[in-house]
Write a structure and sequence with these properties.
By secondary structure, this protein is α+β, with helices and mostly antiparallel strands. The protein has 13 helices and 32 strands. It starts with 6 loop residues before the first strand and ends with a helix. The relative contact order is 0.08.
């Protein structure tokens, strides 16, 4: 479609599980983009892991024709770990549908995603979803939206993504209320086409495919292209739109969202947020690039090692491919005495780590060992040097450390007022500093509040989300944003099995919490390690001081079973012989206790 005024670009934003992908399904049906026989639930969630968990992980674009208009939708994730995917989608569109589940009301990610959309000055269309459910409370949800947005009640749309009720009215509203895309003005005399890369994917047969939003000019098949930030040249091998698979059109016009097969073979060449330029005789220095994205900073770090050392090359290639369409992932090679060669990887949160590790296992058949995740600490040494520590192994000796700082986040907890007491106690136990409380619905027993806290990132890293759900009967939701670094009283805790330090189990813990943490890990190891022919000591230590210890007793063969009658000294002689044998085995077999991957996972989720 050539007329820019007939194009509408929009995104659906919402909290996790509020029905974004299901609403997108109905839109595809109503616009006839996908035939009825090819429809399936959550059609835009392409990965097996997305369909199994019922969550969206990757943003997915699709182009629809409706009443003479070209509607480009980008379906976005709702989980806090994937909010960077949402911000990239919003930079490519003019309108956002703010979806709220009327059985749950406004949640933490609803607010976070709304603020992202307001930062981009997008047109916001509020939509109440799941009105077909028996527990639906539409009037209350509308009141919350009005309080949040300051809009009128008639501007809020009610729909059911499941039955399709009200979906056509939303499509009509997008056409009438949305701004059509505008071509930004380029200063200077040279004309060239510009597009923003909002996502990219590695295709085994085509190489790197860039997902773009065209801002200026036309991008055609066969055009020479440049990438502004990496200063690389290539050619458009093919281009087209999403239906939702690739449909080649040979050209993309201003305002359109589509794909470009770039011809790049190196995944690092095609960076998300870069400006793709098409035109002749343009020098890199004279280019005006489009505003990209804030670089996302990984917050959680874990070591990923192949179980078999020979798989290291395959692991590196798999990570390079996944890095292409995961802008928030960072990794660097790492060597461990216990685990061999692997990578120290940075993630946005635990779900991000879990999904990444699952994709490596499924898509690339890799058997992995993942170390306990930690945050990045700032360490000021006594000699005045400052260093960033991402692994407990790199922490200097205690007498060389002046101060240690850890990252803090601003935490928002949205919950019914009834559970406030439980949540405040949990946040205090996790070292949270209370800021203030906001009411998002009228005061009363069933009113809902937002509690604002400053809290160390390490405190919410492992089990905080589960505990919040537990103390609020599943009603509370959380969102967090990085704040700054603040001083922390932390130490390195080592775990010893059979008197050998297990590098992968070392952690950085709060000094006043070390005994409890050490006891927990030692107990888990005692329960999950298989017994050996000799007694195995399991210990937690800070420096040379043992803070928790257990003993895994040896397997014992009844060597006196064949004896009957006779002198007791014969029995003692056999038991003594067995004892000497065990001592010999213990001396020879120290450090040969194998720790299964399930044990690492148990300690991770303790």
């Amino acid at each position: 479609m050539s007329d820019i005024n007939k194009i509408r670009n929009f995104s659906i934003i919402a909290h996790i599980d509020h029905g974004k992908s299901t609403l997108a399904d109905r839109m595809l049906e109503i616009t006839g983009t996908v035939e009825k026989r090819n429809m399936k639930a959550q059609l835009l969630d392409g990965m097996d892991i997305e369909r199994e968990r019922g969550i969206t992980i990757k943003l997915t674009p699709v182009s629809m024709e409706y009443k003479g208009y070209n509607l480009n939708l980008i379906d976005t994730p709702g989980h806090v770990d994937f909010s960077y995917e949402v911000s990239r989608s919003l930079a490519a569109v003019e309108t956002a549908l703010l979806l709220v589940d009327c059985t749950q009301g406004i949640q933490a990610q609803t607010l976070a995603n709304l603020y992202l959309a307001l930062e981009q000055n997008l047109t916001i269309i509020p939509v109440v979803n799941k009105i077909d459910l028996p527990a639906a409370d539409v009037p209350k949800t509308k009141r919350e939206i009005i309080k949040l947005l300051g809009c009128k009640e008639e501007e809020i749309f009610c729909t059911s993504g499941k039955t399709g009720e009200g979906v056509a009215a939303i499509l009509d509203e997008i056409i009438s209320r949305s701004e059509p895309p505008k071509e930004p003005v380029i200063s200077g005399t040279v004309n060239y086409s510009r597009a923003l890369i909002f996502d990219s994917k590695y295709d085994t047969y085509r190489g790197v495919v860039a997902y773009i939003r065209v801002f200026n000019g036309v991008i055609k098949k066969g055009d020479k292209i440049k990438l502004a930030s990496v200063r690389a040249d290539s050619e458009v091998l093919d281009c087209g739109i999403f239906r939702p698979g690739y449909v080649s059109t040979g050209e993309l016009r201003p305002g359109q969202i589509g794909y470009v097969v770039t011809g790049f073979k190196q995944v690092a060449d095609c960076r998300v947020g870069d400006t793709l330029i098409s035109g002749t005789n343009i020098g890199f220095d004279s280019l005006e690039t489009l505003p990209g994205y804030k670089e996302v900073k990984p917050m959680v770090f874990a070591g990923i090692f192949p179980r078999e050392g020979s798989d290291f090359k395959e692991l590196r290639e798999a990570m390079e491919k996944l890095k292409l369409n995961d802008a928030a992932l960072s990794y660097e090679p790492e060597r461990s005495d216990a685990l061999g060669f692997g990578f120290r990887c940075g993630f946005l949160g635990l779900l991000h780590l879990e999904v990444f590790q699952e994709r490596l296992r499924r898509e690339y058949n890799l058997d992995l060992i993942v170390t306990i995740p930690s945050v990045a600490y700032k360490v000021l040494q006594t000699n005045g040097e400052e260093m960033i520590i991402r692994t407990p192994q790199r922490l200097p000796e205690q007498n060389n450390i002046e101060t240690i700082e850890e990252p803090w986040v601003a935490l928002d907890i949205v919950s019914p007022k009834f559970y406030m007491g439980n949540i405040i106690k949990l946040a205090q136990d996790k070292r949270g500093i209370y800021k203030n409380t906001e009411y998002i619905s009228a005061e009363g027993e069933d009113s809902r509040v937002i509690l604002h806290y400053d809290i160390p990132l390490s405190a919410i890293l492992t089990d905080f989300y589960d505990k919040i759900k537990s103390v609020s009967a599943g009603y509370a939701s959380i969102n967090y944003e990085y704040l700054d670094y603040r001083p922390a009283d932390v130490v390195k805790m080592d775990i010893l099995v059979a008197e050998d330090i297990i590098e992968a189990l070392a952690t950085i813990v709060y000094r006043d919490d070390a005994n409890r943490e050490g006891r927990e890990i030692v107990d888990i190891l005692k329960d999950s390690l298989s017994r050996q022919m000799f007694a195995v000591k399991i210990q937690a230590a800070i420096g040379a001081k043992i803070i928790a210890a257990e003993k895994l007793s040896a397997m014992r063969k009844d060597v006196t079973a064949k004896l009957y009658g006779g002198d007791v000294s014969r029995k003692r002689k056999l038991l003594e012989k067995q004892k000497k044998g065990k001592k010999k085995m213990m001396a020879a077999g120290k450090g040969s206790v194998e720790i299964p991957p399930e044990t690492f996972v148990k300690i991770l989720k303790r």
